[in-house]
Amino acid sequence: MTLLSVENVGFSYRSGKPVLEDISFTVPRGANVGLVGESGSGKSTLLRLLLGLDSPQKGRILFDGAPLEARSSGYMRSYRKRVQAVFQDPYSSLDPSHRILRIITEPLRALKIPGDHRQMATKAITAVGLAPDSLERYPHQFSGGQRQRIAIARAIVARPDLVLADEAVSALDLSTRIRVVDLFEEISEAMTMVFVSHDMGVVAALCDQIVVLDKGRIVEAGLTNDILRAPKHPYTQSLLASIPRMPAGS
Ligand SMILES: Nc1ncnc2c1ncn2[C@@H]1O[C@H](COP(=O)(O)OP(=O)(O)OP(=O)(O)O)[C@@H](O)[C@H]1O
């Protein structure tokens, strides 16, 4: 069943030329879809539309069969309960003056989700491989990779239907990145994810489907295995050629 459907979407920022043109793809429930493309290809803009931060001027986005009504505050309230995001920078996205417990339970309060928030936070922090006593500590007491784990715990604590990840491992060093990719792989088995990255290697490792963007258009889309085996578009071929080889044993 389709959870997210992007239909002929076009978008331009106020003054400029189109940044996205005729974008169509679907995200089946339970799938991991990677949006990949070089800097400036329109990935972040597309993610903004998926988050409801902007609305497309052309086409439409359907979530669970109904149009995403970015301008309706009532709709967005319920949409935010079902969709969470993880961003690139684990340093700026965590408030340094708050304990991890407060950071992770923030979506539960914002969304007025009832229940034992501490227990839910304990479950989420354990799911990302950190000890429950981490909840009593502050962001500066953790490494970059651990902070990104905390950001992931915050994204999954409200059990969203969809997680949108924007360059969520790009800022991490190689070995930390591999561990966080492994973590995403584990948690993504239980949910639907759209994973935005310029790094084809990361997307190939995590996603069962790939959508390749170039200058605001989809140049190739399909199952990861098919694209890896026989990339059709020269742009995809060059992205694949740019995957760095992982050092042995890392
Ligand atoms: N707020 C904005 N106003 C005007 N133009 C913008 C704005 N944000 C992005 N753009 C332009 O839209 C195009 C797509 O940018 P976008 O950030 O979506 O690409 P991207 O693939 O996510 O790149 P990166 O990986 O560098 O973030 C670029 O040409 C960019 O200059």
UniProtKB/TrEMBL annotation:
Subcellular location per the Swiss-Prot or TrEMBL entry: Cell inner membrane
Q: Does the keyword Phosphoprotein apply?
A: no
Q: Which residues form the ABC transporter domain?
A: 4-240
The answer, when asked if Cell membrane is one of the entry's keywords, is no
Q: What CDD domains would the database entry show? A: ABC_NikE_OppD_transporters (cd03257)
For this chain's UniProt record, which GO biological process terms are given?
peptide transport; transmembrane transport
Membrane topology term reads: Peripheral membrane protein
The record's section on PROSITE patterns has: ABC_TRANSPORTER_1, ABC_TRANSPORTER_2
Q: Which GO terms describe its cellular component?
A: plasma membrane
Alphabetical UniProt keywords: ATP-binding, Nucleotide-binding, Transport
User: Example GO molecular function term?
Assistant: ATP binding
Q: Which domain of life is it from?
A: Bacteria
The record's PANTHER family line, in alphabetical order, gives:
TRANSPORT ATP-BINDING PROTEIN (PTHR43776)
Recorded family membership: Belongs to the ABC transporter superfamily.
**What is this protein's record name?**
Oligopeptide/dipeptide transporter, C-terminal region
